[in-house]
Write a structure and sequence with these properties.
The complex is a heterodimer of chains A (166) and B (417). Chain A has 166 residues and is α/β, with parallel strands linked by helices. Chain A has a single domain, classed as Aconitase, domain 4. Chain A is 28% helix and 18% strand. Chain A is built from seven helices and seven strands. Chain A has helices spanning 13-16, 27-31, 41-45, 66-73, 86-95, 137-144, 148-154; strands spanning 2-6, 51-54, 78-81, 98-101, 113-117, 122-125, 128-131. In chain A, strands 4-3-2-1-5-6-7 form a seven-stranded mixed sheet. In chain A, strand 2 (51-54), helix 4 and strand 3 form a beta-alpha-beta unit. Chain B has 417 residues and is α/β, with parallel strands linked by helices. Chain B has two domains: 5-240, 2-Layer Sandwich (Aconitase, domain 3); 269-411, Aconitase, domain 3 (2-Layer Sandwich). Chain B is 31% helix and 18% strand. Chain B has 14 helices and 17 strands. Chain B has helices spanning 5-13, 38-47, 72-88, 100-106, 138-147, 172-183, 198-202, 205-213, 229-236, 297-300, 303-313, 331-339, 342-349, 399-408, and strands at residues 23-27, 30-33, 59-61, 115-118, 132-135, 149-153, 156-163, 191-196, 222-224, 257-262, 269-271, 279-281, 292-296, 323-327, 352-353, 374-377, 393-396. In chain B, strand 7, helix 6 and strand 8 form a beta-alpha-beta unit. The longest helix of chain B has 17 residues, at 72-88. Chain B is globular and about 60 Å long. Chains A and B meet through helix 5 and helix 7 of A and strand 1, helix 2, helix 3 and helix 5 of B.
């Protein structure tokens, strides 16, 4: 059982990892600055398996992959939100962080214990069970291969819809 | 049933008719990497087993976020990318040309009907050139560097129809801030925004770039203006031999939503901290003290923007209590501004005019805010901590409003100075 780190709507990638740390690419080093100035106890106290729970439009803003990397480096494996910004959602999967959509995150409180059974699409918080939107199987495969890299390694060429250019 | 311009662009790449909702692997016409997201993309390219990039001529590389290198780690990132460019034979614009999005468009790397990706969220700006362009992360870019293609879910389209004439000192930035306030920070997530109507048709390329640039601030995957004579005039100067063709959404295309705007009574807009969709008429925040004014960025760093600011400034000086930072988005825009005498005017008035780069926009280099300070900025984001301290505040506005406020030292309606 791991704890919830609760955030609101429109958590942007500048909040997750500020611009001045973008010369760093190591996820453990990035994690030291996650939510710096926004929520300073996170980088000190986050434990392996903790879950971020947020409102709408989590990860809006820049395309920086440093954002999901910083969260992964802090031990987070799952982010639960009412909705995600598009680029963050895709980046998260690509680096092996699982973004799950759940409409009921308002009911989940900061610091509560949480258990995630993603394959069953179930979340348990303080004895109550919630459902998450189903995740396509290929997304799990990418996350379980620790990202898109594993998938791409096996590929000789991209299966494009056409060969011609321009 | 008709198709949207976005569906037509994807269909043009594939051997079948592609509609919104389809997931397709399509070849890309160009891919852009810069000094922040590039090193990780290159690392991912190698981790994926990449040895040779898919096509060195279709990769645009440059440095703009931290230039000239402002730290040793930044210098190391630049060196790493230079080495990659040399080994792969990729042309590297390095620190010499300006902000990535401006450079991609003005060097002719994006044209109508093309699909362009960039490892930066504001890549959607190339929609002003009639391309489908979207920002991607570094791992996706690693995949593109290796294979020259990427999976896309073809987006539905929100049609934004704009009519009316702008009042004096009101323009494209005010329009897009008001649209963002209306649609909201996630109102266009996973969708394309097509800008049309008589007002958009009369916008110059600079104004169209401002609008498409900020499509991401509503969560959109792309922003696009159907190519017309204005587009083709611009592209033909930058892409030798290209021939204009018709590309537009069909009248009976399916849009997820249609929104109508009339700009004839639109007031100058200011987005208040800490979200882009918090746009209000300037009057609501007039009188707010400002410590720093930034005129520049890929959103508003073009000659047209500086001309507008200079018109408002006239022969006056900027307030001595304000740090005024002016940064053209590219060498080309810098030279136009210089030759028109505007650099001298701005410097005489008390501004710092810097060489083309992202500047304070991303808070990763110089021009940072101390706790409690207020920045008024023509850039695209006002998130908490975006330009330095998380206890600082960033307001967004047009070049005209920025210039007016820099004169008075407080947020000021440009129609009143």
């Amino acid at each position: 059982m791991m704890r919830i780190w609760k955030f609101g709507d429109n958590v942007d990638t500048d909040a997750i990892i500020p611009g001045r740390f973008l010369t760093i690419y190591d996820e453990k080093e990035l994690a030291k600055h996650a939510f710096e100035g926004i929520r300073d106890d996170f980088s000190r106290l986050a434990q392996e398996g903790d879950v971020i729970v947020a409102g709408r439009n989590f990860g809006c803003g820049s395309s920086r992959e440093h954002a999901p990397l910083a969260l992964k480096g802090a031990g987070v494996r799952v982010v639960l939100a009412k909705s995600f910004a598009r680029i963050f959602f895709r980046n998260a999967i690509n680096v092996g962080l699982l973004p799950l959509v759940c409409p009921d995150t308002d009911q989940m409180k900061d610091g509560c214990e949480i258990a995630v059974r993603e394959r069953e699409g179930k979340i348990r918080v303080d004895g109550r069970e919630y459902s998450v939107e189903p995740v396509p199987e290929f997304m799990y495969r990418i996350v379980e291969a620790a990202g898109l890299v594993g998938y791409a390694k096996e590929l000789k060429e991209a299966p494009v819809c056409t060969k011609s250019r321009r | 049933m008709g198709a949207t311009i976005t569906e037509k662009i994807f269909s043009g790449k594939c051997t079948r008719d592609i509609r919104a909702g389809s997931v397709v692997m399509v070849p890309v016409d160009a891919a852009m990497i810069h000094d922040i997201t590039g090193p990780l993309a290159i690392q991912k390219f190698y981790e994926m087993g990449g040895t040779q990039v898919f096509d060195k001529k279709r990769i645009v590389m440059l440095f703009d976020h931290q230039i000239p290198a402002d730290s040793i780690p930044a210098a190391e990132n630049h060196a790493y990318m230079r080495k990659f460019a040399r080994e792969q034979g990729i042309h590297n614009y390095d620190i010499n040309e300006g902000v990535c999005h401006q450079v991609v468009v003005e060097k002719g790397h994006a044209a109508p009907g093309e699909i362009v990706v960039g490892a930066d969220s504001h890549t959607c700006m190339y929609g002003a050139a009639g391309a489908f362009a979207t920002g991607i992360g570094s791992t996706d870019m690693g995949f593109v560097l290796k294979f020259g293609a990427l999976y896309f879910k073809v987006p539905e389209t929100i049609l934004v129809n704009v009519r009316g004439n702008f009042q004096d000192r009101v323009g494209a930035k005010d329009l897009i801030l008001s649209i963002a306030a209306d649609i909201g920070a996630d109102g266009a997530t996973y969708k394309a925004i097509e800008f049309g109507g008589e007002t958009v048709q009369h916008l110059d390329m600079a104004g169209r770039m401002t609008c498409c640039n900020m499509a991401i601030e509503m969560g959109a995957k792309a922003g696009i203006v159907p190519p017309d004579a204005t587009t083709w005039d611009y592209i033909r100067q930058r892409r030798a031999g290209i021939r204009p063709f018709d590309l537009a959404s069909d009248p009976d295309a399916t849009f997820s939503e249609k929104r109508n705007y009339d700009v004839s009574r639109l007031e100058p807009q200011v987005a208040i901290p800490h979200n882009v969709d918090l746009g209000v008429p300037v009057g609501k925040v007039a009188g707010t003290h400002v410590d720093q004014v930034f005129i520049g960025s890929c959103t508003n760093g073009r000659f047209e923007d500086f001309s507008e600011a200079a018109k408002v400034l006239g022969n006056r000086s900027f307030s001595p209590s304000v740090r005024v930072i002016i940064i053209p988005a590219s060498k080309e825009e810098y030279l136009k501004t210089l030759r028109a005498g505007l650099v001298e005017r701005f410097v005489t008035a008390g501004a710092l005019v810097e060489a083309p780069c992202c500047g304070p926009c991303m808070g990763g280099a110089f021009g940072l805010l101390a706790p409690g300070e207020v920045s008024l900025s023509t850039s695209n984001r006002n998130f908490r901590g975006r330009q330095g301290s998380t206890e600082g505040k960033v307001y967004l506005c047009s070049p005209a409003t920025a210039a007016a406020s820099a004169i008075t030292g407080e947020i000021t309606d440009p129609r009143e100075v």
